[in-house]
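BUG-233 | component: ligand-complex export | severity: low

The export step for L4TTDIOY jobs runs without errors, but we want the raw record kept on the ticket for reference. Input record follows.
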Amino acid sequence: MKDFLEWRHAFKLDPAKKLDDEALERVCESGTDGIIVGGTDGVTLDNVLAILMRIRRFSVPVMLEVSEPDAITPGFDGFLIPSVLNTDDARWIKGHQHAAIREFGELMDFEEVIPEGYVILNPDCKAAKLTGADAGIDEEDVLAYARMAEHFFRLPVLYLEYSGTYGGPETVRAASRVLDRTRLVYGGGIRGPEQAAEMARFADLIIVGNALYHNLPAALKTVRAVKETDKMA
Ligand SMILES: CC(C)=CCC/C(C)=C/CC/C(C)=C/CC/C(C)=C/CC/C(C)=C/CC/C(C)=C/CC/C(C)=C/COP(=O)(O)OP(=O)(O)O
Ligand SMILES: O=P(O)(O)OC[C@@H](O)CO
Ligand SMILES: [Mg+2]
């Protein structure tokens, strides 16, 4: 498996949403670097296992982005653990994570676990509402979170999350300029290849989610668009 920290393109499949077998096959065979299974609400052990079993018919790598401890199961190539940096509600920074590590710590292979610093920038998305994220921050705030992620917390990943809406390429570009070792992930509102290529100039990893459910052919075209785009030095 190509290591998650080298992925350029990923599709995020929401276990609470429906995708028929033909569509899933096209997603898994698209040439994407991998699939992330994750969502904010409606995530259960049953629907995570169901989508995992269907994805495992193909050779594509698959990571679980944990938002619900009861839905953690073996069988994934690794686990992504979000911590929301732009909330004042400590439960979503370290509280749920602490409780889950108390429960699973003995079983955990930390080589398979990748912490993600999330900065949520769409105030209307479910993740922002759930976590009380302050999405009204300006670019300087985003850059401060990026520097904190890399230099204070030494996080391997900073995720600029615009879930459901297309974010500002300028902010992504500015964040990319202050990051060196921490990988920059962009997700939100990518509907087709042009937007994917635009963000791929600034972010290390591009995530495409909802477009899969609304316009599959356009979503699939984002794979090639990202692969053909070099990130700006
Ligand atoms: C036995 C075994 C396999 C052991 C493995 C052990 C292991 C890996 C343990 C992990 C332990 C751990 C630290 C767990 C973390 C627990 C937890 C609940 C953390 C909180 C995560 C968090 C901050 C969630 C908030 C929401 C969030 C950021 C979600 C990310 C996903 C996201 C934004 C998806 C977008 O989709 P959605 O919001 O659903 O959008 P739609 O509106 O389109 O639906
Ligand atoms: O669903 P979209 O808006 O593509 O967002 C993708 C991903 O960043 C969600 O966590
Ligand atoms: Mg969802």
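Assignee comment: Attached the raw record above. The first helix runs from residue 21 to 28.
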